[in-house]
């Protein structure tokens, strides 16, 4: 008797198969279809038999073109903002960038999506979301100068692959009906970054920076591969064969039909060094908070069998800068300025006090000289107004002492002449008149004639002439208006 090749498994087998799918998170509808297709040995078409495309292909397609276009126009816009400052804008001072990014620490958190390329485990009719995975992490940076920083970073992510076969080949047993591959990886790296925007040393847009970074990293990955396999066979006449399309069963012998579902769970892991490269756009929201967008690609070294070729991440970052607030910075700055101004004011006050004392001394000295000058003027007037008989008693010039220009010191020859003259007029009354030539200031010439008079009187007293016999003693400065050597004399007259 010919038996139809469509066999129904027992209810127990169907329930057991359905439970196996359910444990692997497979939809119940897909489970029933898979089971029916295997039993009939026919071709199985799943409900969702369309080939899916990645949600956001990272390296090709229209999304890549759009991303490159956005990056290009963003770079042009930032370059326009970063043109040389001509000094007429209202932008912050040049030292703002140095304040935030010179020997400063910062920490940051990041999150976004990741991709893995060139995997050995390929997607087959997978879910659309299986091409992207979440990625989170953080790090710490030390910014040495506004154009360079170093730091350490940690990033966790994963990548997944799924295999949902729309066509099964029942001629070969067991049949793989479903596969799911999940790998979690942990990346740790040390890196150095360079600020592209610092190519403009006097740029306006100091709140915007583009960092290009590289370094060395190490990744540790652990994961599993889950698989579901069907096996449907018949044993007839001592021979076991797969149940496939066109299978027939003879009535001449006993037939045994076997159907089972097998699940597998295989562990995978790898550890690799990698070379990272990243492009990081950052904008200062405040002095302490910076937000940014970051793209990174990691090249794995000696990836062997199961490691991917590249790990790619698109991340948003939030950074906290350990710098004083703007108000605190300004307070410190202006406190220093006020302290410097106070010190300068104190110095000026001390200088003013010293100058006032000097001015007071000069004023007192000037008043003294004016009194002496007035007294000399009075004596000169008395001399000029004396009676003729007194004038007659005075002989003609008896002797004069010649002085050099701008000097009140007697030369050796003049001192000797004065000594000889003094020895011959001892006991007689002498009248002295000291002069100065006209070049120079009048006050100075007056003092010079007084000093010349003092020198001559000292020399006469030294030679034994009584000081009481030397009168009058008059210093007239430049009053006679003599510009030549005749005005640089002390004239001595002997009274009868």
From TrEMBL:
Record keywords, A-Z: Coiled coil
Taxonomic source organism: Alloprevotella rava F0323
Family matches, as SUPFAM superfamilies: OMPA-like, OmpA-like
Coiled coil: 338-386
Stored InterPro entries: OMP/PagP_B-barrel, OmpA-like_sf
Protein name: Uncharacterized protein
